[in-house]
Specification:
The protein is an alpha/beta fold. It has helices spanning about 5-20, 25-30, 50-60, 95-105, 125-130, 140-150, 155-165, 170-175, 210-220, 225-230, 255-270, 285-300, 330-345, 375-380, 385-390, 395-400, and strands spanning about 40-45, 65-75, 85-90, 115-120, 180-185, 250-255, 275, 310-315, 350-355, 370, 405, 415-424. It folds into two domains: about 5-20 and about 255-424, glycerate kinase, domain 1 (3-Layer(aba) Sandwich), CATH 3.40.1480.10; about 25-255, Rossmann fold (3-Layer(aba) Sandwich), CATH 3.40.50.10180. The strands form two sheets. The chain has a six-stranded parallel β-sheet, sandwiched between helices. It is globular, with a radius of gyration of 22 Å.
């Protein structure tokens, strides 16, 4: 059977939805819970999945006396009975981010060795749980967050700076909970699944230093406010380093690789040969679109690196560097897709989907979008200039104009971006 536009779109959406479902904490979490504690169990957490993870803990442990607090993004809360849920702002923290962090830090104080802190950590936690270090204000952290987001810095680089401006990140939450046992259940949204990077690693040792944070700001030509510069000069107040925090353990319950494996299974069921290019691809979004367009063309024309019908899969987190071109609407996934479409120039038989598995690409109301062979033609017919919009970082407007945005609403999980290119 040939690949009609409707069939290609349906298969791509099935692939994306399957990847998201594979990371659903309501399915994954219970199998990773530790032995129940002899003493108290305080549940804390931060991230876009924190509330639904807390709900899953309550369902799995109906007989455990649970207490605690988790913080999630506005619109991502779900009903819980024993664990309190707060909501705060992402990607730039707000007053609730600070209040939640203070309350979470206070909740783990004074525990004993028979008690346990169950930490539920997922992507977005850095902004959602933000406690400025002594001498800093929330406004200081908001300003540096905005500068880092616009700089093109990777998530690992941004979190290195965030950890050294925080009283709770970089292992400081786990240090405050001692001597209680700390068990972290995490959903990874970062390339490489580094526990120290997910939500800025509040419960794991931090291998980065104040010197690393200073060097990053210099490399991205970010001039910090005097209070930030003074904080980053306090080398004596380093975060807990590898080899410390022996009372804390870490368990990964969902990763980008798991989601890509599920997506590959959906591709096979649809009669496609899947090729996973990697779960940790990074780089400038539009340039990634150009590169993957080249691979798709090679499959279509030469059957290399595999024969069609095929599906190229990749995960990770690309970046959008806002320069003189201005900042329109859109996130890294729609910018990747517009870069791909411009590079393909309407090549026949190639479709693509890309989206953030949390359902929100950047700060917009869409997870991502779909590219088809006629994307550019339909955009121009609607009065849109693809190259001009790409230069202005306004990819959202193009896909909105032609009705090809993918809107899922909050998925309540987050294993970063899923990109799939179908070559028929």
């Amino acid at each position: 059977m040939g690949w009609s536009d409707a069939r290609a779109r349906a298969v791509l959406r099935e692939v994306f939805d399957t990847a998201v479902a594979a990371a659903d904490p309501r399915v994954m979490l219970a199998g990773h819970l530790p032995e129940k504690p002899r003493g108290r169990c305080v549940v804390v957490g931060a991230g876009k999945s924190a509330a639904v993870m807390a709900q899953a803990v309550e369902a799995a442990w109906p007989d455990v006396d649970l207490a605690g607090l988790v913080v999630t993004r506005y619109g991502h809360a779900v009903p819980t009975r024993r664990i309190e849920v707060m909501q705060s702002s992402h990607p730039v923290p707000d007053a609730n981010s600070e209040l939640a962090a203070r309350r979470i830090l206070a909740s783990v104080a004074g525990l004993g060795p028979d008690d346990m802190v169950l930490a539920l950590i997922s992507g977005g936690g850095s902004a959602l749980m933000a406690l400025p270090a002594e001498g800093l204000t929330l406004a200081d952290k908001q300003a540096i967050n905005k500068a880092l987001l616009a700089s093109g810095a990777t998530i690992s680089e941004m979190n290195c700076v965030r950890k050294h401006l925080s009283a709770i990140k970089g292992g400081r939450l786990a240090a405050a909970a001692a001597p209680a046992r700390v068990v972290t259940l995490a959903i990874s949204d970062v390339p490489g699944d580094d526990p120290a990077v997910i939500a800025s690693g509040p419960t794991v040792p931090d291998p980065t230093s104040f010197a690393d944070a200073r060097a990053l700001l210099a490399r991205f030509a970010i001039t910090p406010a005097p209070a930030i510069a003074a904080r980053l000069a306090q080398d004596a107040d380093e975060t807990p380093k590898p080899g410390s925090l022996a009372h804390a353990t870490f368990r990964m319950i969902a990763t980008p690789a798991m989601a890509l494996a599920a997506a590959a299974g959906a591709a096979r069921r649809a009669g496609l040969a899947p090729l996973i290019l990697g779960d940790a691809l990074e780089g400038e979004s539009r340039e990634m679109g150009t590169v993957l367009a080249g691979i798709a063309r090679s499959i279509a024309s030469h059957g290399q690196p595999l024969a069609a019908p095929a599906l190229l899969l990749s995960g990770g987190e690309t970046t959008v560097s806002i320069g003189a071109g201005g900042a329109g609407r859109g996130g890294r996934n729609t910018e990747f897709l517009l870069g791909l479409a411009v590079a393909l120039q309407g090549h026949g038989g190639i479709w693509a989907i890309a989206g953030d598995t949390d359902g929100i690409d950047g700060t917009e109301d869409a997870a991502g979008a779909i590219v088809a062979p006629d994307t550019l033609a339909r955009a121009r017919a609607a009065g849109a200039d693809p190259r001009g919009l790409l230069a202005a970082h306004d990819s959202y407007s193009l896909f909105d104009a032609i009705g090809d945005l993918v809107r899922t609403g909050p998925t309540l999980t987050n294993v970063n971006d899923i990109r799939a290119i179908l070559v028929s």
